Amino acid sequence: MNPSKAKLELVYPHTAGIDIGSERHYVAVGQGKDHVRSFGCFTRDITEMATWLRSEGIVGVVMESTGSYWIPVFEILESQGFRVALVNASHVKNAPGRKSDVQDCQWLQKIYSVGLLRDSFIPTESIRRLRSYARLKEDHIRRASSHIQHMHKAFDQMNIKIHQVLSETAGVSSMKVMKAIVAGERSASALLSLCSTSIKRHKESEVLQSLEGNYRQEHIFALKQAIAGYEFYMQQVEECDREIEVLLQALTATTESTPSDSSGGSSSNQSNASRPLKRIRRRDPGYNLEGQLEKLTSGVNLSVLPGMTAYNSLQLLAEIGTDMSRWPTSKHFTSWLGLSPGSQSSGKKKGKSRTKRLGTSASTILRIASRNIGRSKTALGAFYRRISSIKDAPTAITATARKLAVQIYNLLKFKKEYHEFGSQEYEDRYNKLKFKNLENKAGKLGYKLIKV
């Protein structure tokens, strides 16, 4: 048979391709001109699209991840009972073959139907809701942080150094002092009286000196607006917490928290070595977040892992969900996260191994956790410091994040118990392995190593 005339087997028959746009969507159910229609972007138009697809015998659709325009189309068609696949735009670009004169929707429908594209990971509808709340909350926290910077700027312009003396600009004592300044108080001793007893006992002289400044009305006005902006966004954060609490309660209403090797009841996981990190200060959500997450994961407590807290566990689960069956092995999982080094080889030539550059939210969460792990006395902390001394900090962060991802995968999928044996035992094991390797090399050369 002539290879050019060979036909590829259909892997996904009865599948339509949709070219997503900001004003119109083009839909192809076949390769002929009569098999392409365009629809508007209003909800009524998308519903009409679903009716037409059903009349054409279509059971599945495929689309590219174009900005945020794909989200309503995805959700509406999914609710209509279609099997909806989302593919990476870069994968479409690198697919073999030539598009020539066919429209984008026809090309997408053709190469997906024959199995040349793979679906992107899309969590379940409930996890997508949780992800929306978690991302919105993090966005509000970032905006609130920007107003803290505005407070610093106003203080610096007035040569007030209170933010350099007190550890938290948005702490209780700092906020009382700032609001009193906005209200017209200028006496340093009166402002000091608003601080906590601990601050007055240990930092009295520093606070008094830091409050001597050039109080100008325009800078005080800027401080007033910064405080208002900060409190507004923190109120938004609290509202997000309420919505997250309601959603978690709904998701765990029928879920019993079953004891497991990874749960908080395991004595080995509750050892001091497994929680050596200083807890990251976050605003209390007002409910037992860690307990709700443990119910959501059927008894798995990700907080037993170094670098993981209830807050970043929520962020991570909102990105990846709780079903690890989407990834056959931990290697698939770490590769999807963009934490596994790739290898380039052709025949006997092997290229340099480099980690894929992916900006996924889940990998960012793990990288931040790994940066904190580097300062701990855990085995992962010792691993981070060893890699950092050999190469550099970014490489160490990626390598540690990959190891942390493997532990998370094993906890969620296999309910494996996590054992923390500390940095010293890690160093001892590593030194024994180095000595064994040297011993083997010396033995091949006819020598014998003896410890002195």
What's the topology here?
Elements: E1 15-19, E2 24-28, E3 36-40, H1 43-55, E4 60-64, H2 70-79, E5 83-87, H3 89-93, H4 104-113, H5 125-157, H6 162-165, H7 172-183, H8 188-192, H9 197-202, H10 204-210, H11 217-251, H12 289-296, H13 310-320, H14 330-337, E6 341-342, E7 345-346, E8 349-350, E9 354-355, H15 361-373, H16 379-390, H17 393-414, H18 422-444
Parallel strand pairs: 1-4, 4-5
Antiparallel strand pairs: 1-2, 2-3, 6-9, 7-8
Features:
Nucleotidyltransferase, domain 5; 3 domains; two-stranded antiparallel sheet; 9 strands; globular; five-stranded mixed β-sheet; alpha/beta; Helix Hairpins; 452 residues
One letter per element, helices H and strands E, the order comes to EEEHEHEHHHHHHHHHHHHEEEEHHHH
Nearest-integer average pLDDT: 85
Q: Count of DSSP E strands? A: 9
Instruction: Give the termini distance in whole angstroms.
Output: 72 Å
The total count of helices amounts to: 18
Q: Please indicate the percent range of residues in DSSP E strands (runs of 2 or more).
A: 5-15%
Structural class: alpha/beta
- Helix content range: 40-55%
Main sheet makeup? 5 strands, mixed
| Tally of individual domains | 3
Strands side by side in the biggest sheet: 3-2-1-4-5
Q: What is the molecular shape? A: globular
- The low-confidence parts are 257-281
Alpha carbon gyration radius: 28 Å
